[in-house]
């Protein structure tokens, strides 16, 4: 069973696609959103949930106060489930898009977002993951607002993502077989995050 952990839809169940997705566990979502709320990037936020699957991450953000959430998945089966969950929960400001992450991010950004969550299948290779991340720090028609946070969920057996220029890791958290990598826009200032993987972000 997958359910929303907290917020206006807390405790409500959501559907998941029958195959091809790996919903983030409730324990990891609870820890993730506790940290994101500590960073101050949930309330009234604009959010991208990439490789959304059931939409659990984006819907959790909306339940906790995000006001504009886009759920992106390459599978039409997955986005049909996302649409059903959006309707069932009655959360406003949430929409889905059926597209590969790279193709979606190649398009217009509109208003920059405050939070990007990327939870690709664990078998996605590092080159493909790097291609997904590459458009995020673009300077023309930017995707990320100042102080934005990017979260990548990976298997704990996977290496650190290859961050593109303009994006740097500021923290990691490991929960059993899952590791969360946190990154922020890189303004070019010196960073000592190599010495402290769990350092707090400079801008939050």
Automatic annotation (TrEMBL):
Keywords: Methyltransferase, Transferase. NCBIfam families: 16S rRNA (guanine(966)-N(2))-methyltransferase RsmD. This is S-adenosyl-l-methionine-dependent methyltransferase. The lineage of its organism: Bacteria, Bacillati, Actinomycetota, Actinomycetes, Actinomycetales. One of its GO terms (biological process) is rRNA methylation. InterPro entries: RNA_MeTrfase_RsmD, SAM-dependent_MTases_sf. Residues 195-204 have a biased composition (Low complexity). Pfam families: Cons_hypoth95. One of its GO terms (molecular function) is methyltransferase activity.
